[in-house]
Amino acid sequence: MIGRLAGRLDYKAADHVLISVGGVGYVVHVSDRVMASLPGPGEAVSLYTDLLVREDLLQLFGFTTLLEKEWHRLLMSVQGIGAKASLAILGALGAEGVGRAVALGDAAAIAVAKGVGPKTAQRVVLDLKDKAPAVMALGGTMAAAGARAEASAPVVEDTAPASRPPPPSGAAQSEALSALTNLGYGPSEAVSAVAEAAADAPGAETPDLIRAALRLLAPKG
Predict the structure, then answer these.
(1) Burial of 152 (0-12, 13-18, 19+ CB in 10 A)
(2) What is the CB-side half-sphere exposure of residue 102 using CA atoms within 13 A?
(3) Are 10 and 47 in contact (CB under 8 A)?
(4) Per CATH, is 169-217 categorized as 3.30.70?
(5) What confidence tens digit (pLDDT) does each residue in 155-211 have?
(6) 95 with 65: CB under 8 angstroms?
(7) Annotated region Disordered: where (predicted)?
(8) Given CB 3.0 to 4.6 Å as the disulfide criterion, which of 28, 44, 111, 162 pairs with 62?
(9) Which contiguous run of DSSP H or E holds residue 134?
């Protein structure tokens, strides 16, 4: 299994890139969002990858964060969602956006992705809603692991600094989710409150998310 590639970006196509590592060129399919974040040809690049294996096909898919890769794997488990649809969803919403949409049951947000109809979007929400809390809780752990990997692994064939993805905002959400579950709230209600709070205040820090989520969870009336 090829889990990560670090090398030189040789070229960009419409939906894939070629990364040169140790004299071997790897074709890696990426979403529009990942494509927009990559440097120009000839520059250093690093992507987490997932390998799709079929009888007549081997394809690599690339992601800037481990959280994005995990959501890709989950999306691919939903009936009617192939690799192309998964990349379309992640390209439209990003990993954190997918997490919020699934947690809040917002099928309409999923359906904005190209090629994903309302029925398929509803299936995504229904199939993955119970899995969203665990993935969001893993967000901070994945971010820390990714930072360690970027700091320790040298880029092959290039002396220029490696391209680093921006820190994922999911870390604050996972910390807030952990705090709420420690306070005794159930996983489903905690993840819904954190997702709603994050949607209302993108980029909010952990304490602000916790306070906002607690206000949402407070008894009404």
Answers:
(1) exposed
(2) 28
(3) no
(4) no
(5) 444 444 444 333 335 778 888 888 787 777 887 788 888 888 888 888 888 888 888
(6) yes
(7) 154-178
(8) 28
(9) helix 132-152
